[in-house]
Amino acid sequence: MDVVTLPTSLNSQADVCVIADDLLRMVDGKSKQGTIYCVFTEDVVLQQPFKLFYYTKLKSVTQLNNDFIKNHGFPMWSDYHSASHPRMARRNGDYIKFNFFQGPNGRNDGIIYTWTDFHGGEHARLPTQSEFQLLRAPNRDNKNLYMTITAESTTVMLLSEKSFGSYLLMKENQRKIEKNHVTCMIVQDCSVAMTMFKKCGHAVCEMCWARNLIEKEKSNVTEIKCPSCQSFDVGRDQIIRLKLRQGPCPIDMCTPDASTYGAVLVPCGCRIHCKHLADACTKYKNNPDDLARKLKSCPYDACKKMVEEVIPLKQG
């Protein structure tokens, strides 16, 4: 899934990340349902329930901050003072399974969901499951539906059904799953949404890039260049938001090393952290259209958009 950590304010007590995939689109398939697995990759204590919220299609959900989430959205379970909720203390390897279904009269009527809590360790119990719950749709149809997680994106993996199956296979074979992380070329340790320049393949976080544009405007600088290579003037048509989907490589479940940056698919923006795709970019360097035709569509089952271009990602 496309997971982004939202910017925090000084008064914020907990990190929040959002699944930037529209859940209504997810349940539009033939089965009219979808599944998301929240796998915990570190020991963590949940402070607040996860939430669902509707947001306009006209703006990017990555522009929100966690103060907005605190004041909006529908908690997916009661607070932690009641009995009906997943465990607060999570261990590495625990997971929560979320099932989503179209509303009684289709997606325009809202969405039905349920969760099942799987937890291990010395106090392991049988999985606990919630009752089916209905979240009604707003009156206007220009809304997407998103899910927020009250944890930093580096402590969880949010996986689709197919990706979760690959995760279990790699776990059984004791193969490590590398986190789909990209370094901001300005500050380097940013964890918010990332933007890539299509001409050069360098990436910066949206917050650093916005500050860079403000500074250039104050200095009356009209030519805006990539902050890493300074090689060309950056126009709006040369920018694409990276989607750093989590889980195993969707092409061949490979385990790339730190020197493999992979590639980004256009127009969807999904970064594929794959050694073989990186090698293919080199092989098809003089015929990039052939590689796009060979891929056909994005290999992530949560995306599946047609591929028009494949751009090697550069770090440094």
The residue-averaged pLDDT reads: 83
Please give the oligomerization state of what you see.
single chain
Principal-axis shape equals globular
Low-pLDDT ranges: none
Number of DSSP helical runs? 6
Strand elements, count? 19
Computed CA radius of gyration, to the nearest angstrom: 20 Å
Largest sheet: 6 strands, antiparallel
The percentage helix is 10-25%
Q: What is the straight-line distance between the termini?
A: 26 Å
Q: What class do helices, strands and sheet pairing give?
A: alpha+beta
User: Can you write the helix and strand succession as a string?
Assistant: EEHEEEHEEEEEEEEHEEHEEEHHE
Strand content: 15-25%
Structure description:
- This protein is an alpha+beta fold.
- It has 6 helices and 19 strands.
- It has helices at 23-26, 66-71, 161-172, 206-218, 275-283, 288-295, and strands at 3-5, 17-19, 33-40, 44-45, 51-56, 74-75, 89-90, 95-102, 111-118, 128-129, 133-135, 143-149, 156-159, 194-197, 203-205, 239-241, 263-266, 271-272, 309-312.
- Strands 3, 8, 9, 10, 11 and 13 form a 6-stranded antiparallel sheet that branches.
